[in-house]
UniProtKB/TrEMBL annotation:
GO terms for biological process: D-amino acid catabolic process. FAD binds at residue 182. Transmembrane segments: none annotated. GO terms for cellular component: cytoplasm. Belongs to the DAMOX/DASOX family. This is D-aspartate oxidase. Keywords: FAD, Flavoprotein, Oxidoreductase. The keyword Oxidoreductase applies. Pfam families: DAO (PF01266). D-dopa binds at residues 221, 277, 309. Its cofactor is FAD.
Length: 337
C-alpha cells in the first residue's frame, strides 16, 4: 500500500507518525512545498482550546481534544520529552469583560488543575482585573517537536519530499491513500471557499526568569517556552494574507504585554514572526473523499485541515480520527474484492 501525507506542518507530521505505527508495511511519503516555514513554527504551542473551535459534533470535538492531550502527555512522560519539546506549564488568564472569558468548556475537566483565581492572584500582574482563572496544561514547542517528528519518521523509513501540488488529483496514479493535511493550502487544492486566513503576529523575547504564562484581553498573551524564549502576542486579522511584519502591530503587542507583565519591559527581542492560521468557517474538515486523474486512476483521500489557531493542540486527535476513517475505508474496499 502506498500512502501520501500532504502537508509538512504539525498536522501533517503528527498524522504521519500515527499512520506509520498502524500501517507498518505501507510505503509512506510526506509531500510538502516547504517543511521549514509553516504556521506551526510560529505557534507558541500551549494546550488551550478556544470556544470557537469546532468539529462535526460536540462529542467528536471533545474526543479529538482528549486524544490530543493524552498523546502529548504520553510524550511528556517519556524519555523523548525534552527532544520533542513537550513539557508542563501553568499560568493565568485574566479578563474584565465576563467570567465566561476565563473559562474553557473544552479543557476544564481535562487538565490537572483549572480553578478560579484568588483575589491576591488577580493582583499578580498589571491591570485591574475582575475575573481570572489559574490552570496547568501542556506546552509543545514546534521548533523542537517538528524536527523530532521528522527524525522519527525518517528513522522508520518514511520519505520526506518537497513537491508543489496544483491538485490532489495528481496523486491518484501514484498512491492508494492520500491524507490531506494542507491547512490553508486546501483553499486552492480543494477549492474550499470556507477556508479563510487568520493572520497572526508574535514577538519572541529572551526572558529566562519567566516560568508562568499569562493571558489578558485584546488577544494579549505571554507564554514561556524552552531555552528562556517567551512568546508575546498577538493578533488576529481576519482574511488577511499579508505575511510582512507590521511595526505598528509589534509596538502594540509589546505595549500590551509590558503592561501585563512589567518585568518584560527590557527583555531582548530574539525575532518577530507572522503566520496565517488556517481557519475554516463551520468546522474542521476530517472526512473521506475520492480523487481521480485524467486517466481515470482513483485513490482514497482523507481530509484533515482547517484547525485555525488550534492545529498544535488538536492535531493528534484529528489525526487519530482521520486514521480510523482511512482504515474503515480500506477494510471496506478489501471486503468488496
Amino acid at each position: 500500500m502506498k500512502v501520501a501525507v500532504v502537508g509538512g506542518g504539525v498536522v501533517g507530521l503528527t498524522t504521519t507518525l500515527l499512520l506509520q505505527r498502524e500501517l507498518r508495511n505501507a510505503e509512506m511519503t510526506v509531500l510538502a512545498s516547504n517543511f521549514d516555514d509553516t504556521v506551526s513554527h510560529v505557534a507558541a504551542g500551549i494546550f488551550r482550546v478556544g470556544a470557537s473551535y469546532s468539529g462535526p459534533t460536540e462529542q467528536i470535538t471533545r474526543q479529538w481534544i482528549k486524544d490530543s492531550y493524552e498523546y502529548y502527555d504520553n510524550i511528556r512522560k517519556s524519555e523523548e520529552a525534552s527532544h520533542a519539546g513537550v513539557t508542563n506549564i501553568s499560568g493565568y488568564i485574566f479578563a474584565n469583560s465576563s467570567l465566561s472569558t476565563v473559562k474553557s468548556h473544552w479543557i476544564e475537566d481535562l487538565v490537572p488543575i483549572y480553578r478560579r483565581a484568588t483575589e491576591e492572584e488577580l493582583q499578580l500582574v498589571g491591570g485591574d482585573w475582575k475575573y481570572g482563572s489559574y490552570f496547568s496544561t501542556l506546552l509543545t514547542q514546534c521548533s523542537l517537536y517538528l524536527p523530532w517528528a521528522k527524525r522519527q519518521l525518517q528513522a522508520n523509513g518514511v520519505t520526506l519530499r518537497r513537491r508543489k501540488l496544483h491538485s490532489l488529483n495528481e496523486l491518484a496514479d501514484e498512491f492508494d491513500l492520500v491524507m490531506n493535511c494542507t491547512g490553508f493550502g486546501a483553499r486552492e487544492l480543494c477549492n474550499d471557499k470556507r477556508m479563510v486566513s487568520l493572520r497572526g503576529q508574535v514577538i519572541k523575547v529572551k526572558a529566562p526568569w519567566l516560568k508562568t504564562f499569562f493571558y489578558g484581553e485584546l488577544d494579549t498573551y505571554v507564554i514561556p517556552g524552552f531555552h528562556g524564549v517567551v512568546t508575546l502576542g498577538g493578533s488576529r486579522s481576519f482574511d488577511s494574507e499579508n505575511t510582512n511584519l507590521c511595526p505598528y502591530e509589534s509596538a502594540a503587542i509589546r505595549q500590551r504585554c509590558n503592561a501585563l507583565v512589567p518585568s518584560l519591559k527590557n527583555a531582548e527581542i530574539v525575532r518577530q514572526e507572522v503566520g496565517l492560521r488556517p481557519h475554516r468557517e463551520s468546522n474542521v474538515r476530517v472526512e473521506v473523499d475520492r480523487i481521480r486523474d485524467d486517466r481515470s486512476n482513483e485513490a482514497t483521500v482523507v481530509h484533515n485541515y482547517g484547525h485555525g489557531g488550534y492545529g498544535v493542540c488538536t492535531a493528534p486527535g484529528t489525526a487519530m480520527y482521520a486514521l480510523r476513517l482511512a482504515m474503515d475505508t480500506h477494510r471496506s474496499s478489501i471486503a468488496k474484492l
